[in-house]
Amino acid sequence: MCSSSRRTFLATLCPESFDHVFVCFGPGALSRPDQALAILNSLLRPGGTMTVIEGEPRIGLLSPRQQRGSMAIQCLVELQRSAVETP
Any idea of the CA torsion for 71, 30, 43, 18, to the nearest 10 degrees? Predict the structure, then answer.
């Protein structure tokens, strides 16, 4: 999908139309991850949540921060660490 098609698709999404946004392995590849996350945040309904997981170990964002979400991210970090440490 070309860049202009992506912009067109995003323009069709209504603000405050999602209960949850999940992003995995995306922001680290963008030149302006802050801008992309702000756009995605604008799509959340009031009280909506966002989960962002990046490929780098120990990087994860939950909004709002919740214990179960933090535990899930910690499990991913431990799985990554064990995969790297295993010969």
Answer: -50
Question: How far, in Å, are 42, 44, 87 from residue 11 at the CA level?
Answer: 12, 15, 47
- Cis amide leading into 64 (omega within 30): yes
What average pLDDT does the structure give for the chain?
Answer: 75
Half-sphere exposure of 74 (CA within 13 A, CB side): 6
Return the number of other C-beta atoms located less than 10 Å from residue 48's C-beta: 16
HSE-up (13 A, CA, CB side) for residue 55: 6
Flag residues of the chain having pLDDT under 70. 1-11, 55-64, 84-87
| Domains of the chain with CATH codes | 15-85 (3.40.50.150)
52 bridge partner residues: 23, 61
